[in-house]
TrEMBL record:
Lineage, broadest ranks: Eukaryota, Viridiplantae, Streptophyta, Embryophyta, Tracheophyta
UniProt family annotation: Belongs to the peptidase S8 family.
Protein known as: Subtilisin-like protease fibronectin type-III domain-containing protein
Chain ranges of the Subtilisin-like protease fibronectin type-III domain: 683-778
UniProt keyword terms in alphabetical order: Hydrolase, Protease, Secreted, Serine protease, Signal
Organism, as annotated: Lupinus angustifolius (Narrow-leaved blue lupine)
SUPFAM superfamilies named among the record's database cross-references: Subtilisin-like
Single GO cellular component term: extracellular region
Domain Inhibitor I9: 3-87
Length: 782
């Protein structure tokens, strides 16, 4: 088994010499040799020596050997290298980034020029036009990664495919190979054979590419949030079948390398398992690596996970991580389902009605009270017009030996070709994100198409996916009962399906995606997670031309330069792209200041100016779904005030959280550090306030803001229903740039405060409307 031994930070500092690196690696061999009995055995066992910024190693050990190692005095933690899951054009216009208008985030942030964004994922398709270096200047001198471009086995005369845009590409496979066997030489490359890494990297830092589309849908100019940034790919996720695996030991090595290479932003669209243990912070590879990145002034952005809508499912929850949820944009790929024939139902596009369902506008056609046409999601065009298909439910088409539940989800080997007989099959989505296997089973049974209805957990988040059946339409929970009612009312159910159309201006948007993982934060309850939400539904971006559109092994379609994917994997690089703009605009800002600027300028309103809703059940979404709200890049460039946090502040937070002095010293490169006795866990200078275990006595929360705008006076307003809450002082006057002011928020329960329920409120600082600096407040009375 592959275990990681974490030892904290190196005493050699941030610029180690070759001797320093060798000394660090030798110390790892010596430490493990004290367990295994010899230096030679230690060398054989260690697959990674983290000798640059992160101090530790990954080794193949027996369980008892790992336990013995964990008892050593200078070892912080020893844990299994965990398997991490991937959390898989119009979106930037929806966020307000378009054209060359003055005072936009692109103009202010100079399109992210010379910021370096690292993407830790499945690699990169370097030939994608998104990584063209047209219009890009020389590689900045701060790039320390040299000319390492581990793409394929190239001859001496072949030029590597990296350039002034894609400035580096590396792969890390030792932990994957230890668990799954050796990869062949053609696989040992940073080239992306899955598409996920290409998609995420182009979303954060891809260049402008006109005429980007998938099957003719979404046609427009593809681009990243920082389109002139430099990008580097670090491949840690590998696929041998249709399953992609990422191992923590590989991921940690990639982070260590990215820090050494001099990147500014790291984007990680992956995460481990849900945990309720505070120790998880230092037994999780993303958390450990990101702390060391932060210590080197690097912003680390990570996906919140796709395990929603259940509460307490959010991942990547350390306070130094920037954790991103997923929501919709105002573009849909729509198709119309028409049920029945013209004798039973009239279908006419001109006879459109509006059906208001809890503030959701749904269009259809009707005759009398019968709603016969339903919008769904599809990517396919050039379908036969007005062709009527027989409709059959998967449970009616099941094989005799298949269970009802398996057939409902159209699992492999459940459908009877004799019963399907060219019909369109109704299947239920099994997965929360990727649900293309259902169509594969329907196709193998001879279906002409598929209607894929959402399961209960998917709610009303409708995903457009590149199914293997071109006649496929996905419908949400609103329409599912109507379709089932019609199907059960007749023995000869039929259906007409229109080709897909790209529709802009969808309202409301954003809506929180059902799959997006939710708070509360079970590992660090005093920190609200996720931090922010960004577009993560039906996102069009660059793709690997070696991958099939659906990623199914049976899918022979190849050569797609762009594809549509969903997940917090897609929302994460949106925030990385915005962070890149801020890094260009304010190169000396800390990761915490950049995070604060994005969080405190976020919006909790949709494009109808109503509160953001949850697609799962159509109720109002809460900060447990969207954190501070929906990102607004233009406002983030000029936040007015920021909540800054230093490494010392994080160390004091760990002290207040009960971590021992050995850990604190190790994180601080064994330099002396005295924990502040007055520091409370509520006092970490976070841009949100979370009080999860309040008693009847008042709680004083301390925050400090730094002025990053002109001289101004800010006035506070605060609300938290059921609690008495005041801000002292409630007015802050700043006379110069960089001036700091401290205030307290005093919160106390009252006679009307409900116990054991979370209450949501907010704190706002405003300077006559020029800036609104907003922080969510979450409180719960035990």
């Amino acid at each position: 088994m592959c275990y990681i031994a974490y030892l904290g930070a190196h005493p050699h500092g941030s610029t180690p010499s070759t001797i320093d690196l060798e000394t660090a690696t030798d110390s790892h061999y010596n430490l493990l040799a004290s367990i295994l009995g010899s230096h030679e055995k230690a060398k054989e066992a260690i697959i990674y020596s983290y000798n640059i910024h992160i101090n530790g190693f990954a080794a193949l050990l027996e369980e008892q050997e790992a336990q013995d190692l964990a008892k050593k005095a200078n070892v912080i933690s020893v844990f299994l290298s965990k398997e991490h899951k991937l959390h898989t054009t119009r979106s930037w216009e929806f966020l307000g980034l378009q054209g060359n208008a003055m005072n936009t985030a692109w103009q202010k942030g100079r399109y992210g020029v010379n910021t370096i964004i690292a993407n830790i994922d499945t690699g990169v398709w370097p030939e994608s036009k998104s990584f063209s270096d047209e219009g890009i200047g020389p590689i900045p001198s701060k790039w320390l990664g040299g000319q390492v471009c581990q793409i394929d086995k190239l001859s001496a005369s072949t030029k590597p495919p990296c350039n002034r845009k894609l400035i580096g590409a590396r792969f890390f496979s030792k932990a994957f190979e230890a668990a799954n066997g050796k990869l062949n030489s053609s696989q040992l490359t940073a080239r992306d054979f899955v598409g996920h890494g290409t998609h995420t990297l182009s979303t954060s830092g891809g260049n402008f590419v006109p005429n980007a589309n998938i099957f003719g849908n979404g046609n427009g100019t593809a681009k990243g949030g920082s389109p002139k940034a430099r990008v580097a790919a670090y491949k840690v996720c590998w696929s041998q079948t249709d399953e992609t695996k990422c191992y923590g030991a590989d991921l940690l090595s990639a982070i260590d390398q990215a820090i050494s290479d001099g990147v500014d932003v790291i984007s990680i669209s992956a995460g481990g398992e849900i945990s309720v243990s505070p120790e998880q912070i230092f037994t999780d590879e993303v958390s450990i690596g990101s702390f060391h990145a932060l210590s080197n002034n690097i912003v680390v952005v990570a996906s919140a996970g796709n395990d929603g809508p259940e509460p307490g499912t959010v991942l990547n929850v350390a306070p130094w991580l920037f954790t991103v949820a997923a929501s919709t944009i105002d573009r849909d790929f729509t198709s119309t389902l028409t049920l029945g024939n013209n004798d039973e139902y009239m279908f006419k596009f001109g006879a459109t009605i509006k059906l208001l369902l809890s503030d959701y506008e749904v269009s259809g056609s009707s005759r009398g009270n019968n709603l016969s046409a339903y919008w769904g999601a599809s990517l396919f065009v050039n379908l036969p017009p007005q062709k009527s298909f027989t409709l059959i439910s998967s449970t009616d088409a099941k094989l005799a030996n298949a269970t009802f539940q398996d057939a409902q989800f159209c699992k492999p080997g459940t459908l009877d070709p004799a019963k399907v007989n060219g019909s369109v099959v109704i299947c239920v989505r099994e997965g929360k994100i990727r649900s293309v296997a259902e169509g594969e089973e329907a196709l193998s049974a001879g279906a002409s198409g598929m209607v894929l209805s959402n399961n209960n957990q998917s709610g009303n988040t409708v995903l457009a996916e590149p199914h293997v059946l071109s006649t496929t339409n996905t419908v949400n929970q609103v329409f599912k009962p109507n379709i089932n009612e019609y199907y059960n009312s007749t023995k000869n159910a039929t259906l007409i399906m229109s080709e897909a159309k790209t529709v802009l201006g969808i309202k409301p948007a954003p809506v929180m995606a059902s799959f997006s993982s939710r708070g509360p934060n079970l590992v660090v309850p005093s920190i609200l997670k996720p931090d922010i939400t960004a577009p993560g539904v039906n996102i069009l971006a660059a793709f690997s031309e070696a991958a099939s559109a659906s990623n199914l092994p049976s899918d022979t379609r190849r050569g797609f330069p762009f594809n549509v994917l969903q997940g917090t994997s897609m929302s994460c690089p949106h925030i990385a792209g915005v962070a890149g703009l801020l890094k260009t605009l304010h190169p000396n800002w800390s990761p915490a200041a950049i995070k604060s600027a994005i969080m405190t300028t976020a919006s909790t309103r949709d494009n109808t100016n109503r509160a953001i809703r949850d697609a799962f059940d159509e109720t109002l979404a809460t900060p447990f779904a969207y954190g501070s709200g929906h990102v607004q890049p233009d406002l983030a460039m000029d936040p007015g005030l920021v909540y800054d946090i230093s490494v010392s502040d994080y160390l004091n937070f760990l002290c207040a959280s009960g971590y021992d002095q050995t850990l604190i010293l190790a994180l601080n490169s064994n330099k002396s550090f005295t924990c502040s006795k007055s520091f409370s866990i509520t006092d970490l200078n976070y841009p949100s306030i979370t009080l999860p275990n309040m008693k009847l006595s008042a709680v004083n929360v301390t925050r400090t803001v730094t002025n990053v705008g002109p001289p101004s006076t800010y006035i506070a307003s605060v609300k938290l229903s059921g609690f008495k809450i005041v801000v002292v002082p409630n007015s802050l006057t700043f006379k110069k740039l960089g001036e700091k002011k401290t205030f307290q928020v005093i919160v106390q329960a009252t006679s009307v405060t409900q116990r054991e329920n979370y209450t949501f409120g907010e704190l706002r600082w405003t300077d006559n409307g020029k800036h609104i600096v907003r922080s969510p407040i979450v409180a719960r009375l035990d």
